[in-house]
Design brief:
mainly alpha, single chain
Length: about 325
């Protein structure tokens, strides 16, 4: 398949899936359910939405600050303003083209802070590794809270999980073989690829060379606590979810986090995923989808507004660069 066609499909397919899910969610609901969902959203207490938005913004600031710790071992010190605006511009880009935000974020810091792209991008990969670990940790905690409800679901998926593990093992083996070929090759293109990979590796290794390990761990925990907290307080905007304890909310958080990666910024998928999990805890579909749309809509609005402002102010605040 032609590379350009693959790139186009990567953009169109997730967005198309998101649009389809929105259509499916609306069309599959009865007029009464649609009216209820809209009523829940329109009557949501704005106080809790504001709290959630503040926690979301704080988590982004903490992430931007934490990024500086990864760059320090390589001898780079960047402005918090540039770190934050690069992060938010990346979030905005991800809504248009999935996973493009990481590349844009690294490119932005390369432009305004004179850091080699391969090193900046390596630290972003390091963040992804850490975030994946944190999500797995939260999934483990969720299983402890809701083991009875979720274990039966996992049993149904054990076959597909086994196949996924086999495919992952195969991909790792191919990756190792490819690395050995690159290391021994004298091809100019492969040598450039090798040099780029070494830069990425240096960025990833920055985790082990952290000068402020305690502060890094603190901000990592703060980021994920704020993620869960901004999720948790939204439950008070819908009467049917206000009584839920931390266990069901953690399960909903995990489902929402996974749904965010399936479409552009989680459009369409996020409300459906959260509603599906909440339904397991006796929350009716209109209330569950209202919860999802309130949370997704408020956080997405912030990403759009702040991300757009970041694109505007980055060149203004870095005129000399």
């Amino acid at each position: 398949m032609h590379p350009k066609l693959i790139k186009i499909l990567k953009i169109i397919l997730p967005l198309s899936l998101g649009v389809f899910l929105i259509w499916y969610s609306i069309s599959s609901a009865s007029p009464e359910e649609r009216q209820k969902t809209f009523q829940y959203i329109s009557q949501a207490d704005p106080k809790w939405i504001v709290f959630s938005v503040i926690m979301g913004i704080t988590s982004h600031l903490s992430r931007a600050y934490r990024w500086r710790f990864l760059l320090e071992p390589m001898g780079y010190s960047i402005k918090l303003s540039n770190s934050y605006m690069a992060l938010m511009a990346g979030y905005l880009a991800n809504m248009g083209i999935p996973r493009s935000g990481e590349v844009l974020r690294g490119g932005t810091i390369t432009t305004y802070e004179r850091i080699p792209f391969k090193k900046a991008f390596g630290t972003i990969i390091s963040e992804r590794v850490i975030d994946s670990f944190m999500l797995l940790l939260i999934i483990g905690i969720t299983l402890l809270f809701q083991s009875k409800d979720l274990f039966s679901y996992l049993e149904e998926k054990i076959t597909s999980t086994f196949i996924l593990l086999i495919a992952l093992a195969g991909a790792i083996m191919l990756g190792i073989l490819f690395l050995k070929i690159i290391q021994r090759s004298t091809n100019p293109i492969l040598i450039k690829l090798k040099n780029f990979g070494e830069g990425l590796l240096e960025g990833i290794k920055s985790i082990s060379k952290l000068k402020k390990k305690g502060a890094f761990v603190f901000h990592t925990l703060l980021i994920w606590i704020l993620y869960i907290a901004m999720f948790y307080v939204i439950k008070y905007t819908v009467p049917e979810t206000a009584h839920l304890s931390i266990g069901p909310m953690l399960a909903t958080f995990v489902a929402g986090s996974i749904a965010m990666s399936t479409t552009n910024g989680g459009i369409g998928a996020f409300p459906i995923a959260t509603a599906a999990i909440l339904f397991l805890f006796d929350v009716e579909k209109p209330a569950g989808e209202a919860f999802g749309w309130i949370l997704w809509g408020s956080q997405t609005a912030i990403n759009i507004i702040v991300g757009s402002l970041s694109f505007f102010f980055l060149p203004i605040l870095n005129r000399q660069k």
